[in-house]
Amino acid sequence: MPRHPPYLMSLSLRLVLRGIGLRAWLRVRWVVMACRFVAGSVPVALLLTGCTTYPVGNRQAVSDCPACAAGTVELPLLPGALSYPIVEVAINGRPGYRFLFDTGAMGTVIFRHPRTADLALSSRGEIVIGGLGDGARPVAQVAPGVALQLGPLTLRDMTVLVLPVDRLALFGSPDLVFIDGIIGNDLWTRFGVEVDAAGGRMRLHRLGTTDLGSGARSAALTVRHDHLFVPVRVTLPASRDPVAVDLLLDSGAGGALHLVTDPARGLVPPDGAVTTEGRGIQGPSRAIAARATAVEVADVRWLNVPTGFGPEGAGSRQLGAGLIGVGLLSQTRWAVDIGQLRLWLVPGDARERRFEDGSFGLATVPVANRLLALLVQARSPAANAGLQVGDELISIDGSSITGSQQAAVEAALRTRRTATLCWRRADEVRCGTLTRAAP
């Protein structure tokens, strides 16, 4: 059973249900990578531009979008894993692929699995992807000359990484491969990008013209090492005073808040916080699951925020003090525009939100109109009931469910103290009653 890697998840249901740090197992922007024939490891930017001539940000690519010159272009968000922003992308003219928009991704990644295996992309070398754990490192192919189309926008002459999913302990089961790729820096360096998870849409604005209206709150963005950083004020249980830090803005990271333990900055998990065993792409790892008393971003405040702490000294120049992830971002309409170096949040009527306590320890994903268990937290109510990753959920409290009802199931799991689930494993149907874990 896959478990949580450091920084990417905590043990609360809200953090699990608001996003599994799925892309973060293979991210090309704050892992350390190394060329196959170069000893040791080097920072990502040096590797991508030196060892393989991988063009960080794909600056050589051509943007073709006549409709974009006239104003804002709207793209529908696809049903996917919880609140990750997922859009349809055509690869070399073939439509129907699902890509996660990731503000933390330095490169574009295509996963090689049954839906993408026949794309016949060329290869210009390999990159060995490092990450958490101590096992073997997966190898990605570097593929040039790829065209990606998102609605009326086409990005031509892209160089992408092609990563076989069977080399990753990422999806837990072949049935759980619900995205075909990741795109980040290649998009937000060209457009102002607005994401409205509740409204089910993404908008592309001409760079430097993004405007979310009078209800928006904004904060300055800083671009360092091809990554986006935003100022955040974090109040932890060990201190009554907030700590001001710049955190990575990462719509591809699961959960809400991930910090690197740093006593000098006051970033210390509270006494009694739970140490969890996780698994990265290279094997076992550890993290600390806790909660921040408050988090303030762009004059919007969250309370009781699920927070994952990485070990002291684990921050790289890419990661810095930590990151904010999709679990926090998806609660607002938000946008980034590096032409204006601004992040906007539109929180609606509530400028202060509180995360819920307790957890069933279950996260789901819709695949081919089935609703599957994507993650089952160890020793959680879901695990104690017998649920396993890859099980197909077929009913909740006696009502049948399908993949299209994921949002309703997620809402039920957030609000109910108990839930009776039935699921199918192979040809066997099992049922169990889950009682919400104490906070």
Q: Layout of helices and strands, plus pairs?
A:
Elements: H1 13-17, E1 33-34, H2 44-51, E2 62-64, H3 66-69, E3 73-76, E4 86-91, E5 94-101, E6 109-112, E7 126-129, E8 139-150, E9 153-164, E10 181-183, H4 185-188, E11 191-196, E12 201-206, E13 217-220, E14 222-224, E15 227-235, E16 243-249, E17 257-260, E18 274-280, E19 283-297, E20 300-310, E21 322-324, H5 326-329, E22 333-337, E23 342-346, E24 352-354, E25 362-367, E26 370-376, H6 381-384, E27 392-396, E28 399-400, H7 406-415, E29 418-425, E30 428-435
Parallel strand pairs: 5-10, 6-9, 16-21, 17-20, 20-24
Antiparallel strand pairs: 1-7, 2-9, 3-12, 4-5, 4-8, 6-10, 7-8, 8-9, 11-12, 11-22, 13-23, 14-15, 15-16, 15-19, 17-21, 18-19, 19-20, 22-23, 25-26, 26-27, 27-28, 27-29, 29-30
Describe this structure as you would to a colleague:
The protein is mostly beta strands and 439 residues long. The chain contains 7 helices and 30 strands. The strands form 4 sheets. A 6-stranded mixed beta barrel has the order 4-5-10-6-9-8. Strands 3-12-11-22-23-13 form a 6-stranded antiparallel β-sheet. Strand 27 and strand 28 (399-400) form a beta hairpin. The longest helix is centred in the last third of the chain and has 10 residues, at 406-415. The model is unreliable at 1-51 and 279-283 (pLDDT under 50).
Structural class: mainly beta
Overall mean confidence score, pLDDT: 80
Major beta-sheet overview: 6 strands, mixed, barrel
Number of strand segments: 30
Number of helices: 7
> What is the CA-based Rg, rounded?
21 Å
- Poorly predicted tracts of residues: 1-51, 279-283
What portion of the residues fall into strands of 2 or more residues?
35-45%
N-to-C CA distance? 23 Å
Strand order of the largest sheet: 4-5-10-6-9-8
| Shape descriptor | globular
Helix content: under 10%
